[in-house]
Amino acid sequence: MFKLNFKNSLSSSFNSIPFQSTNNFLTRKLTTIFKEEKKENFEIGRFNHIAIAVPDLKKAGEMYKNTFGAEISEIMHLPEHGVSTIFVKLANTKIELLHPLGEKSPIKGFLEKNPMGGIHHMCLEVENIQKAIKQMEKSNIKTIGKEPKIGAHNKPVIFLHPKSVGGVLIELEQNSN
Questions:
Q1: What is the CA radius of gyration of the chain?
Q2: Selection from 60, 56, 103, 53 nearest residue 82 by Cα
Q3: Any alpha helices (H) in 41-126, and if so which ranges?
Q4: How far apart are alpha carbons 163 and 177 in whole angstroms?
Q5: CA 121 to CA 15: how far, in whole Å?
Q6: How far, in Å, CA of 174 to CA of 9, rounded?
Q7: Which segments constitute the VOC domain (predicted)?
Q8: What band does 9 get if pLDDT is binned at 50, 70 and 90?
Q9: What is the pTM of this model?
């Protein structure tokens, strides 16, 4: 609990309220504000995966499987996102290997700038993607697209523009349907 120091410069209306009553009133008001703010906000869940753009998807998947003994998924083609992907399962997270699918693929441009490939984005889970999008709007964080799309895990996802979040492309994925 905090304490207020009243000085003579405060309005007469505040001076007429006994100190304890004012303190209790403000404490209740701030508590209510913080509870309401928490309801509107979303919380970041766990780290889901890191995505790496690769020039040869099959070769990259085989490298993780044969060199590191990792379990890999089958190749998935996601035309809505313009990518083909393989997931590499690790003990505590996943790696998503990305390769362009189609001429309009965002990964195509990335690989033109980075022909050897490289880290493309990271994915964080959120409980409610719609609340997350609203919070991003309130916080002036630009999303790529206005509405979530269904991602590789068959869950709604939305990307945050790197210029709005410290230079890193961030994918938000709803952790439950």
A1: 24
A2: 103
A3: 57-68, 106-113
A4: 29
A5: 56
A6: 51
A7: 46-175
A8: very low
A9: 0.73
Domain segments of the chain as ranges: 11-40, 44-174
Task: Bin 5: left if φ > 0, else alpha if -120 < ψ < 50, else beta.
Answer: beta
Q: Give the Cβ contact number of residue 22 at 10 Å.
A: 16
Q: Which residue has the tokens 């001076």?
A: 15
In angstroms, how far is CA 8 from the centroid of its own chain?
A: 48
Here the tokens at position 35 are 């509870």
Could you tell me how many residues make up the chain?
177
The predicted model gives 47-52 an average pLDDT of 95
Question: pLDDT digit string (tens) for 53-103?
Answer: 999 999 999 999 999 999 999 999 999 889 999 999 999 999 999 999 998
**Domain 44-174's class?**
alpha beta
